[in-house]
Amino acid sequence: RQPSRIPQELGSESSMSPIRDQLYAISRRKKSILCVAADVESAEELMSIAEDVGPHICVLKLHADIIRDWATETPKRLQEIAARHDFLLFEDRKFADIGSTVVAQFGSGTHRIASWAHITNAHALPGPGVIDGLRQACESSGRMVGLLLVAQMSSKGNLIDGRYTESCLRMARDAFPFCIGFIAQERMDPTGKLFVMAPGVQLEAKGDGLGQQYNTPEHLLKEKGVDFLIVGRGIYAAPEPWQGRTKVQGTILEYPSIEYRE
Ligand code: 5FU
């Protein structure tokens, strides 16, 4: 079985971004382009989803600020599960402030994201200072985190237009290899150096009544050329016939298999 869509263009740039190399290596090993969004409110639920989907995913995406009982050991437990099941941790923080503020938001506070996340993301709106601040926080913490810029959103009526998206592409190129890709709805960088993770994915394209818009995996991968899919409720809140752990496992099998051809 050959992966059909995993980015191949590592070339001479391969060693420039260890996080990106790690992500691609996991993707190849596990034959998966799946990132599961675990938007649950307790640490136990988060761990349970991480254990269930772990064997099938390359990335677990979370919003640490949703977890009501986040504790010092929560990231350690996540890191242990991530290491055991071979996936990366993506904190979907969407930083969007001036450089000096994001230094503190990234490195300090309750969540100390820079100390445990492999990947995080930011809006490009404040300008390159947001990237510089995040990079500085990484340098201070002594660990490199991969940054994704939010170049497009899946939500209805969002204010991002083509010009903004183009500016994101330029900012991301300037910030490579710290910036390794985008949150977007279509392929951004023709060279493939910067990859795209697309949220707003379900097997049936509909919405959620709060502005979320879904596309099918086929559409995003084949028509839009994205590299990785982010699936949340389509997996952990899938309807019958799956229940509990089996629900997650049963659903998840539908996603990675879409990516691969014999
Ligand atoms: F940047 C974005 C975006 O444009 N759309 C999103 O849906 C991020 N997201 C996140 O992806 C959102 O915060 C959720 O964590 C996840 C989608 O979850 P769903 O349950 O698959 O709708």
Walk me through the structure.
There is one protein chain. The protein is α/β, with parallel strands linked by helices and 262 residues long. 37% of the residues lie in helices and 16% in strands. It has an eight-stranded parallel beta barrel with strand order 2-3-4-5-6-7-8-9, surrounded by six helices. Helix 3 links the parallel strand 3 and strand 4. The longest helix has 14 residues. The chain is globular, with a radius of gyration of 17 Å. The N and C termini lie close together (5 Å). It binds 5-fluoro-uridine-5'-monophosphate (5FU). 5-fluoro-uridine-5'-monophosphate binds next to strand 9 and helix 8.
Helix count?
10
Instruction: Label the structural class.
Output: alpha/beta
Terminal Cα span: 5 Å
* Element-by-element helix/strand order: EHEHEHEHEHEHEEHEHHHE
| Most strands sheet | 8 strands, parallel, barrel
Which ligands are bound?
5-fluoro-uridine-5'-monophosphate
Shape: globular
Q: How are the strands of the biggest sheet laid out side by side?
A: 2-3-4-5-6-7-8-9
pLDDT average, as an integer? 89
Runs in which pLDDT lies below 50 for 5 or more consecutive residues are: 8-12, 240-244
Q: How helical, in percent, are the residues?
A: 25-40%
Strand proportion, as a percent range, falls in: 15-25%
Rounded to the nearest angstrom, the radius of gyration is 17 Å
Give the number of DSSP strands.
10
Q: Say what oligomer this is.
A: single chain
